[in-house]
Every structure is written in C-alpha cells, then in structure tokens.
Target: LADA_0B03994g1_1
Amino acid sequence: MKYLAAYLLLVQGGNTAPSAADIKSVIESVGVEADEARINSLLTSLEGKGSIEEIVALGETKLASVPTGGAAAASAGGAAAGGATEEAAEEEKEEEKEESDDDMGFGLFD
Model:
C-alpha cells in the first residue's frame, strides 16, 4: 500500500509516469526501506492501463457493485421480512419491561 501511496503522491505532484527510482526516493525519504520487487510489481501491474484517473474510475465502478451490508441491506432485509420487524420491536419492549430494575425494588448502583 505504501508503494501505491508513493506512486499516487508523485502523480499528484505532476510526475505523470513515476519510475522505480522516484518511488524508492519517496519511500526512503520517510525512513522506510524500499523493496525493489514490490515497486517493480506495482509498475508492472499499472503498465498499459492508461492514466491514473482512468484506473481510479474503473475501480470506483467495481466498488459500486460490492454490497456493504449497511443501511441499504438492513432496509432491504426489513422490506423482505415485512411484519417481522414489528414483531421484533414488540419483543424488545417486553424484554425491557422484564429487565427493569423497578420490578426488583433496588438498583445496581444504589
């Protein structure tokens, strides 16, 4: 990841085609030893793919198809379950009543 970050920093700085030596100098400027094999692997994987903007745009389209499991999945699951969410809410209310300290006559931190 640090090699890709160094590559992107160089591109952002105006170097449209960073070399292995450029990447190595950025990595070593922060006190980290650079691995030539990883740098060469990165450059080989980026070779012939177009500009970095095109590569990022392609990656964004791929990420858009990845399910995140967040709110969208919860709403889709809730819509599919229908009345199940209402039943779950009622069960939670019943559990809250059962777990209340008021029923026991004392509080945990009294």
Notes: The mean pLDDT is 79. Helices lie at 2-12, 20-29, 36-46, 52-64, 71-81, 84-98.
